[in-house]
Design a protein that fits this description.
Elements lengths: L2 H17 L4 H6 L7 E2 L5 E5 L4 H6 L6 H12 L8 E4 L13 H18 L3 E5 L1 H7 L5 H4 L4 E5 L2 E8 L2 H6 L1 H12 L1 H10 L1
Parallel strand pairs: 2-3, 2-4, 4-6
Antiparallel strand pairs: 1-3, 5-6
Helix pairs in contact: 1-5
Length: about 200
Amino acid sequence: MSSNDKQKLLAQIAADIKSKNVCPNLAKTATNLVIGDGNLNAKVVFIGEAPGKNEDLMGKPFVGAAGKFLDEMLGHAGLKREDVYITNIVKYRPPNNRDPLPDEKAAFWPYLVRQLQIIGPVLVVTLGRHSMEYFMPSQRISVIHGQPKRISFNEQKLVVMPLFHPAAALYNGGMRQTLIDDFMKIPIVLKKLEKE
């Protein structure tokens, strides 16, 4: 599928979210719908939780302090933002940056599934427990972070690698190195998967 076709299909997702009035309570307080950003042919898709204040204003995911740290970690892994695709489960900012609620994540989930089908990544990296829980409901991030797992997902096989959310490192300096170490594994995992 060409990038042009992918772009049209992703634009359709945004249009569908608006026309179906997904999470009207969130839409009412948000400035922008934040669908995602990056390379439409990316081998890696990063999935966060929900947009924050800066993301809501700019209409792009991970552009605040956590986004700067994400960029830094991509650099450690030999990647640039243009190489990857970044999105969130929930596409509108929850008021006051509260955690997304289970019904909000459930409402946006089918649209995330469509995004993954369109982009077709080799590896999905979840950032934080909210996005991990949907792919691996019974797991704990503190136990399995940085470990790629093969899962069957909507009739397709996916490799999902759960990582802590970059924001965690902003509040807890000790997490910073853990996240960098986990990020350094991404190119190694990719190489293995591409050989298969």
